[in-house]
Design goal:
The structure is a homotetramer.
Chain A: H1 11-16, E1 26-30, H2 44-61, E2 73-83, E3 92-102, E4 106-115, E5 118-130, H3 142-150, E6 155-156
Parallel strand pairs in A: 3-6
Antiparallel strand pairs in A: 1-3, 2-5, 3-4, 4-5
Amino acid sequence: MTKTYLTPLSVDEQRDAGLPESWPFALRNMVEFSELDALNHVNNAAYLYWYENIRVRYFQHVALTKYQPDDPRIVIRRGEVDYLREMVQNEDYIVTLRTESYRNTSFTVYSEVWSSGVLRSTFRGVIVLLHPDGSGRMPLPAEFLTRIQTVDGAVKAG
Amino acid sequence: MTKTYLTPLSVDEQRDAGLPESWPFALRNMVEFSELDALNHVNNAAYLYWYENIRVRYFQHVALTKYQPDDPRIVIRRGEVDYLREMVQNEDYIVTLRTESYRNTSFTVYSEVWSSGVLRSTFRGVIVLLHPDGSGRMPLPAEFLTRIQTVDGAVKAG
Amino acid sequence: MTKTYLTPLSVDEQRDAGLPESWPFALRNMVEFSELDALNHVNNAAYLYWYENIRVRYFQHVALTKYQPDDPRIVIRRGEVDYLREMVQNEDYIVTLRTESYRNTSFTVYSEVWSSGVLRSTFRGVIVLLHPDGSGRMPLPAEFLTRIQTVDGAVKAG
Amino acid sequence: MTKTYLTPLSVDEQRDAGLPESWPFALRNMVEFSELDALNHVNNAAYLYWYENIRVRYFQHVALTKYQPDDPRIVIRRGEVDYLREMVQNEDYIVTLRTESYRNTSFTVYSEVWSSGVLRSTFRGVIVLLHPDGSGRMPLPAEFLTRIQTVDGAVKAG
């Protein structure tokens, strides 16, 4: 039994779904009734959960954390979200993510939401890494650096 | 590309997923970070969204409503939820639903949540049908009655 | 500056708010936009958060827990909610709670939601106490027992 | 009975609560258990609900809408949120809002969250006004313009 919603979409699946370019990490999902608000479209805050959910899956996918006590603490410091076209009940969508830039102890992720071949929303988030005990900032691990440089195409910021 | 999360699981898929019996309506999903609470397991209220989401999909699947202005209003009057075994981050689960009994203008749905072959939670909800303008109770449509009698095995209550 | 939303309502405040009887624990709040669903009334699952929030405040108020690692784990095993009359945007309401019965390691809380002198919803929840490490059931502490017997009027269950 | 949570805080109440400057619109609230995530602090998306809730109250307070079918449609096009210091269970906070700039058919609101005299988070949101039927952009009503110019100190953008 294929569990397509559990796994990053392949390059082929992304193209078939109408994404104009392929992403290193993309997941499929569907608008649920509970995400609609009184205006009958997806609530602005609900998108933040979509963006959080793919971040958390990505952080595990790239082995940055397993959400255990000894793992780095991953903290969001800033988020910017654009709402380009509303989403309504039962719509199918793809949410994507890549790390686009990094510094010593932080990095910026960029996400998009696509549905029916139309870009609906974008998100840019600044993420800071703290030591597991929360004591202070922690340098990005070497494997994570390699991953975001080679797979995500992330560039060193300023 | 199979969109397994969009469609009711087949009898074979349900058996492969470890359900001891097959259901007329079952969907697969996965615990997301945003559903966890400070105790690090799925929050008790989050299950209510799972049960609501499958109800809403089922109501459309059996053509009781398309959530348009001319459709019947579907109102929940009572819910009973049992929490049998906690669910944690990243767990895969199946949520099921069938209508188990009915009266002239109301019916009772029953749902279960299964994960790793273990029953985690159950829900029983009493649903009332109102006319589209909310003016009063509305008899169950004939096609819905036929469906719940023949497919769901629902019995007349009282 | 009075922080009425932080403190249990007094007997006088409850009577002025239209409650037909006074409760050992009652809080005031207001429906927020984010609690409405596409049907333009408070979503059925949102009430569960109201009932959870007052439980958590009550558990701290009666010193059952401070939500620290050495405190008992408080787990909900069953919830029954009745939806009697819908709630809409901006409505002011009172949510109440008392422990109505207990056994050695569990107890039952009962809550109501009142607005404009009309009962809107009720909730009954079965709560189980576990040892701080989650290892097994824990007897109700003596002070908690005294409190629920003398203030809440809780009775020993069958 | 004072319903402080229902009404904008006065200048005196804001000063007593530790706000360094007074705001045209400020509300008090408290962190609830349901807003915490598995990291035991307020979830990043939960702030978006706080910011939405005060916006919606403000829009009604300044009579921009009563959320009736004949009212303008108010749509968020962009949000920027900064997370400066985490918030934890039971913390009391003030959320503030003013309109800081405007164009013909849109305006920008700015909000802050304060707790224990410390700035915890900020939000800037771009809001667009549409005709009640959603057909296209609608100029800001004259009374709203006067209000944001004289009370909020909003300036015409570029």
